[in-house]
């Protein structure tokens, strides 16, 4: 087996001719930062653009479905319309939040991540198995945190002053995933970093490329559960533990229960999916009668 070592940008020239030949993507990544100023800003801009690309591109297919009658039968709350005015209101709020809140958070990512030991300019990049397992762990860790933090936001003044804003859309669509109060964005946003922090604390190597992949996974999942569509090929039909849009859409419709972000097991363990299960039974009974 060929010897493979991690190298930094400063050792790039020697390494390419000695032990490891970086891939095209790795060369582009290293050259983008090699000898450049404003590394923190450069990384923040890359992550921000990646966030915008994944977030809006994942929403686009669902938006197109709104204009195709065939897909109407898969819309969960087909008696409610998200008018262009409501969609535009959501877009404006989300963009302001992303620029004024999330972008500064991304600028703080590099110093904090490197302090914790995250890999940044090391190659080779982690293999897909490592990335997949890391993302799966992060998904479960975020789901654990999200359940309790989200449930807390439904109590008293926390709901009235903070979380109620997110529930303005009782029939959600993809972009509404990030339609939230700044305090909620920060509070629930912590969940994104729980998994990586645990892995680093346990001595597991984390690379910024793994974080970028995890960011994409999380964005795709959160847009999907707010999509308002439940297709036959939706993941929940193949993984019983997966919540999906059908599970979370009920939360927006009823304003209670189904607090998990991805999986269903915490709601099952604490009984906060009971009302949803009863509602599903009534819906099934109506279909039989019809």
TrEMBL record:
Domain Fatty acid hydroxylase: 136-272
GO molecular function, one term: iron ion binding
Swiss-Prot/TrEMBL keywords: Membrane, Transmembrane, Transmembrane helix
Annotated InterPro entries: Fatty_acid_hydroxylase (IPR006694), Sterol_Desaturase_Related (IPR050307)
Entry's Gene Ontology BP terms: lipid biosynthetic process
Compartment(s) of residence: Membrane
Principal location listed in the UniProt entry: membrane
This protein's encoding gene: ERG25
Transmembrane segments: 39-65
Protein name: C-4 sterol methyl oxidase
Record GO cellular component, one term: membrane
Domain of life: Eukaryota
Membrane in keyword set: yes
């Amino acid at each position: 087996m060929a010897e493979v070592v991690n190298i930094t940008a400063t050792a790039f020239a020697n390494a390419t001719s000695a032990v490891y030949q970086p891939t095209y993507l790795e060369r582009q990544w290293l050259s983008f930062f090699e000898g450049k100023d404003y590394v923190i800003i450069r990384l923040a801009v890359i992550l921000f653009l990646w966030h915008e690309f994944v977030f809006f591109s994942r929403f686009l297919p669902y938006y197109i479905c709104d204009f195709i009658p065939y897909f109407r039968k898969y819309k969960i709350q087909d008696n409610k319309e998200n008018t262009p005015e409501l969609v535009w209101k959501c877009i404006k709020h989300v963009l302001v939040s992303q620029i004024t809140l999330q972008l500064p958070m991304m600028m703080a990512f590099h110093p904090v991540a490197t302090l914790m030991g995250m890999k940044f300019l090391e190659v080779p990049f982690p293999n897909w198995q490592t990335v997949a397992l890391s993302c799966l762990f992060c998904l479960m860790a975020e789901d654990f945190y999200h359940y309790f933090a989200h449930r807390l936001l439904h109590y008293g003044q926390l709901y009235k002053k903070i979380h109620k804003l997110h529930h303005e859309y009782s029939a959600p669509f993809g972009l509404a995933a990030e339609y939230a109060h700044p305090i909620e964005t920060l509070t629930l946003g912590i969940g994104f970093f729980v998994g990586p922090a645990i892995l680093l604390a346990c001595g597991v190597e984390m690379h910024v490329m793994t974080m970028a992949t995890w960011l994409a996974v999380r964005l795709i999942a959160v847009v999907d559960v707010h999509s308002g569509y439940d297709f036959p090929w939706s993941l929940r039909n193949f993984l019983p533990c997966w919540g999906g849009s059908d599970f979370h859409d009920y939360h927006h419709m009823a304003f209670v229960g189904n607090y998990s972000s991805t999986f269903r097991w915490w709601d099952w363990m604490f009984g906060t999916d009971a009302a949803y299960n009863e509602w599903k039974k009534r819906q099934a009974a109506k279909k039989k009668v019809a």
